[in-house]
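dude i think i finally got it to work??
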Amino acid sequence: MKLKSKPKLAFVQSFSGMMLSIITGIGLSPLVLAVPAKVSLHSLEQSAQRQPQKLAQFSDTGTPERSQLVQQANALFNQGDLTGAEENLRKFIKKSPEDAFAHFQLGNVLFRQKKAEEAISSYREAIRLQPKYALAYNAIGIVYASQSRWEEAITEYQKALEINPNYGEALTNFALALWQTNKKDEALSSLQKALNIFKAQNRGEKANQVERILREIKTGDDPAVS
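look at this
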């Protein structure tokens, strides 16, 4: 079936639930969802409000103080107190400036407050401390994508995928950015790879999301397709 040059409105809207899960529960594995195509930050936040909100988890191998401070940041975030979560994380970073995860968490909180450049700086610091931080590269890509800086987003997703080629969420994000730059064949290939990875990992919800994107892309503006 011939692909259309412009995705229909329903295709754009179908991405609205697939966003920003740097702040909606990433576990220890790299679980960052795709940023939607051409959806405003306001729409992103509305979608976020419909999902359980939780900061990224961490491997609790540090001190009890570290555990307590990060848990407090999670609690404040869940209460909608982003300023409090930021203050909590900055307090911890002041005591432990070499903690890459804390910088990553701070980036998540800053991005949620629409402080995009500050968020990028925090993610970059996490990468400086932990160069193989695929989640942080992917998160920077999401920030760029939210600003329609597609080429820069693509570069960051590629860095994440160089570290972890089986990073399904980064592949999905990468595909959506490719689609925005009219690299449609590469986008479809990346989505199919992401789908295969999610299926192999028995992650049915993510596989269903990618399948839905693929259906929307392939049906384009066809009014006969629901």
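The first helix runs from residue 9 to 13.
im so relieved honestly
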